[in-house]
Design brief:
Elements (H helix, E strand, L loop, with lengths): L1 E4 L4 H7 L5 E5 L21 E4 L11 E4 L4 H9 L9 E5 L21 E4 L2 H6 L7 E3 L15 E7 L3 H4 L8 H7 L2 E4 L6 H5 L6 E4 L3 H9 L1 E6 L8 H9 L3 E4 L4 H4 L5 E4 L2 H13 L1 H19 L1 H16 L1
Parallel strand pairs: 1-2, 1-4, 2-3, 4-5, 5-6, 6-7, 8-9, 8-11, 9-10, 11-12, 12-13
Length: 320
């Protein structure tokens, strides 16, 4: 198939484009949000091709993957065909709803003929999906391999723009975790985080690394901390588990499903979580054995082959 999708979430797209199809990503001169083109910091196969919007009408597209509300109008404008009516379409929902959560209606409800696909069961539960056929395809991860060394008695955190996103990403909780262990915080917009939190630079170090360098740096830390209050399911949590890291996570959204017993510590109590960080820091062998169980669990549930098989079934169904 030839699949049109926008480059919105680099980590998710990296897994999706490992399939057997041709993936068409729009590219605009300024590489803005609607035309990022191919990833610069992820490894994508040659089957991902960049096409300017003005050339899309010349290309046959078998199915469109929508990920944001305005993309249906963009696709109609650029393809000359309406998703769900003139060309098969799936609306992929990456995020949990915001605002009045129990009553938040999904924007795909206004797109007749479009199949709605969530990345977690939590998402499907929390969104009002109306009468749309809604399914779930859980995340898949391109396995980075077991890289855990735990040589640094630090806790790794991965979050983008922690200052702007604040309580959503649990930024306000980082000082309490920093009391338990020095933090290495990876992600975009993390510079100056220690000063913003009033922490000494040695207790909260910021790093903005390309994806190809991120995993090795994370795996040097003895434990991964996932302080996010409200999200769908942070792929960095699953990546840490794939790396063989023990994880400590808030028991919110889908984290309770992703981290089984023995693979880490999941709780809504900050004292339980900070004590768990201290325990992993103090006992490298405990950290390693827990991380091995985390990796086994992540490979079983979030492996790439299962993810691609699930998408094959859905794509065949919506194009049938």
């Amino acid at each position: 198939m030839r699949i049109l999708l926008w480059h919105v979430h680099g980590s998710w797209t990296t897994a999706f484009v490992q399939g057997p199809h041709t993936y068409v990503v729009p590219v605009t001169p300024g590489r803005g949000p609607d035309g990022l083109g191919r990833a610069r910091t992820f490894d994508w196969p040659d089957s991902v091709i960049e096409v300017p919007p003005e050339q899309l009408r010349e290309i046959h597209v078998d199915v469109v993957i929508l990920q944001r509300p305005h993309e249906a109008d963009l696709a109609e404008q650029w393809l000359g065909r309406r998703p769900g009516r003139d060309v098969p379409a799936v609306y992929l929902e990456h995020n949990a709803p915001h605002g009045q959560v129990p009553d938040t209606r999904h924007p795909a409800i206004g797109l007749p003929g479009v199949t709605l696909c969530h990345v977690t069961h939590f998402n499907r539960l929390m969104w009002d999906n109306g009468d749309l056929p809604a399914t779930v395809i859980e995340h898949g991860i391109v396995d980075p391999g077991s890289q855990f060394t735990g040589e640094l008695p630090h806790a790794a955190v991965v979050v983008n723009e922690p200052v702007r996103r604040g309580r959503t990403t649990g930024t306000d909780l980082l000082p309490q975790f920093a009391d338990a262990a020095p933090l290495d915080v990876f992600g975009m917009g993390t510079e100056g985080l220690a000063g913003h939190l009033g922490l000494p630079s040695g207790r909260c170090r910021s790093h903005e690394l390309a994806q190809r360098d991120l995993h090795a740096a994370m795996a040097q830390c003895r434990v991964y901390v996932h302080p996010v209050r409200w999200t769908s399911l942070g792929l960095s949590l699953l990546e840490a588990m794939h790396l063989g890291m023990p994880v400590v996570a808030l028991a919110t959204t889908e984290a309770t499903e992703a981290v089984p017993e023995g693979a880490g510590v999941v709780s809504t109590r900050i004292d339980v979580l900070t004590d768990a960080v201290r325990d992993f820091i103090a006992d490298p062998r405990y950290a390693r054995t827990t991380g091995e169980r985390a990796r086994t669990a992540a490979l079983a549930r979030y492996g790439l082959s299962r993810f691609l098989d699930d998408w094959e079934r859905l794509l065949k169904e919506v194009t049938r």
